[in-house]
Amino acid sequence: MNGKEKVLVIDDELMPRYSMQQVLKDRYSVLTATGGIEGLESLENEPPDLVVLDIKMPDMDGVTVLREIKKRHPDIEVVLLTAYASIESARDAVRFGAIDYLMKPFDKDDLLNVVERGLKKKREREIRRLEHEELLGKTGILERQIVEVKQNLMMSYEGTVKALLLAIDAKDQYTAGHSEHVARLSHAIGEAMGLPEEAVESLRQSALIHDIGKIGVDETILKKRGPLIDEEFKEIRRHPEIGGRIVSAIPFLEEATMVIVYHHEKFNGTGFPAGLKGEEIPPMARIVTVADAIDAMMRDRPYRKRLPADKILSELLEGSGTQFDPAVVDIVIKKGLIV
Ligand SMILES: [Fe+2]
Fold first, then answer.
1. CATH of domain 6-135
2. Positive or negative torsion for Cα 202, 208, 212, 217
3. CATH superfamily of 172-334
4. Residue 95 confidence class, pLDDT cut points 50, 70, 90
5. How far, in Å, is the centroid of ligand 1 from the Cα of 210?
6. Separation of 211 CA from ligand 1 center, angstroms?
7. What are the domain boundaries of the chain?
8. Distance, CA 219 to ligand 1 centroid (Å)?
9. Average pLDDT, the chain
10. pLDDT above 70 coverage of the chain, percent
11. β-pair partners for 50
12. Distance 154 CA to ligand 1 centre (A)
């Protein structure tokens, strides 16, 4: 292989075939074939970069050969060679992908020009193909990097949530199992409501840390066994806002902030801290409110025993539309999520 571009000349007539070979051989590596069938065979053995193809040949006409070449090797450029009598079919043949046609007897410079033009087109196409491949390669690398970054982010997200959860557990034993159960319930409600998978997962993580603000509440009040006085209630009611402030410093916990700050809002607007009403309350918070209440009713408290399932149900129905979002209560009951 001498590195020169390859040109295949297909012509049944000896003289033009020979003279074309002479004109082209200094610049290109030239192969010849004496007819369409031989030309197509040679094409398979050693694909050229460009074919100079006679239109009128006894074994197979040039237009048929051209179509066959383009079918098998769309990348190979074809220049047609035609006698005056076949000029119409040469013009027609350009439609089938030939770059141009030359009239017989051909001019030496015209031949060199048209062959060079065809090869230039092929070279440029090859460069574009390589650039495209390079781009695809780079895109692939970039996509893999994005997946990696996402995984790392997810890990730090989960790690942060876990650290926050441990921080609340250390302070308030009640919240330990509570947070996890509220998270499981919220997840189940979200799924039953047909929320997208990502939203359900985000809901679960948010519910896990909904009470994070209790870190900032006086421990003696959290652990008090007897009934609370007004001042103590006031102190406890600060936990949604404290929690909001804690997580607002963590950008990827933005959605959790909505749950943390608004999980004590009531559907009729009498909740805290903002007194939001109905749909003003973020949807995720409305779900966690119901899950939070269900879990609380399922536990023994210092001032009462855990409630049986039928009592929890009637409490939910009673609070539907006042304390709770009726749509959430509806789903909980329909899907039998209290067991
Ligand atoms: Fe809470």
1. 3.40.50.2300
2. positive
3. Hypothetical protein af1432 (1.10.3210.10)
4. confident
5. 6
6. 5
7. 6-135, 172-334
8. 15
9. 91
10. 98
11. 7, 77
12. 25
